Amino acid sequence: MFDRMSETNRGRIIERLAAWRQKQLTDTIQHIINFAKTPRDLKQEMDRFIIGQEQGKKVLATAIAFHYRRLGQALQEALLAGQGQDLDQILRQARTPKANVLLIGPTGCGKTYTAEVAAGLVGVPFVVADLTKFSETGYVGQNTGDILVDLLVASGGNPQIAQLGIVYLDEIDKIATEATAYRDVSGRGVQKGLLKLVEGVENTVELGQERLAMSTRHVLFIGGGVFDRLDQIVEQRLKRHGFAGPWQQQLLTEDLVVFGMERQLMGRFPVRVTYDLLTTQNLVEILTHSEDSPLLAYTADLKAWDIDLKFTPEALRAVALKAQQERTGARGLVNILHRVLGEDMFRLPGNFTGSLVVDEAYVRWRLA
Ligand SMILES: Nc1ncnc2c1ncn2[C@@H]1O[C@H](COP(=O)(O)OP(=O)(O)O)[C@@H](O)[C@H]1O
Ligand SMILES: [Mg+2]
After folding, report:
1. Which position has the higher pLDDT, 341 or 72?
2. What is the third-level CATH fold of 280-367?
């Protein structure tokens, strides 16, 4: 289509895109300058989606609220001081000492989800980089440049907006060296590359025909991982020094180094928080109260066919227990619900209206 377009039209489209980008940019900058949510505001909004993980929500809400408030102030000052400068210069001058965050905890307990929800509430671009796909040998698969491209895509192709986003480094523990031997020495190279990115690099990214310059100086990084056996590393150290107490509150950079992380990289993640294993009650509440609950979504879907779906409390518990058994945290809930309801969702619409009550026996039968 595009190459059959007239020159005038092509020019017009490019012009509009540029204007739109500029508008999107001024909107984003304005939005960040006006950002005034307190950590408590942010946490309260997060509570609508994320069940439990009080400490995680608190720490993340604080880190994110401070980061964007600080960035907003810096942008404002730079804009007021520098008449006639372009935004790149202003962004370059804005100083924001970043405090990147490290989330440690079991799988499916809400680490990625909390970060994603928080980014959405602040209204900034968010990308997840899966570090298991990164390798050092010439960076087969993915490399840190791909993170920049993803960020750029999430920002509608606008490199300046991309610089104000959040990058979630998923499974950051999988690039550890030695101790856990996920990957021995090769992890070190990946960690070095990551360190550069986290410290803030200026980079050129190719997007289609365009070459765009962007920097990660203001990007907030959140690393997340299970860090299997990190608890033992901390406890052993505590024992050696005759200390006791919950390991979560005593975690030091030193322990992460023993685990196999590079000291410098971990130094860039000074804010750390551990996530808890979700309890049966948490899982039930995710089904009944989270605004993203898959059960509430199914209920609304069936309602559109005049079917009133109800789960008894025992049935909810049975679903939660199944998820716990499968050890995938809340991640397994969608699949379990689908196993329970899939057949009915196929058969009932058009055949049945009224109340559909799912009890414990029905859940067990479907999951058998
Ligand atoms: N605490 C929670 N509250 C509500 N939903 C959750 C919670 N934890 C996980 N979930 C749900 O499970 C999914 C997977 O969680 P995720 O955050 O990706 O896990 P991980 O801790 O492994 O990063 C989320 O997308 C969300 O739907
Ligand atoms: Mg995750």
Report:
1. 341
2. Helicase, Ruva Protein; domain 3 (1.10.8)
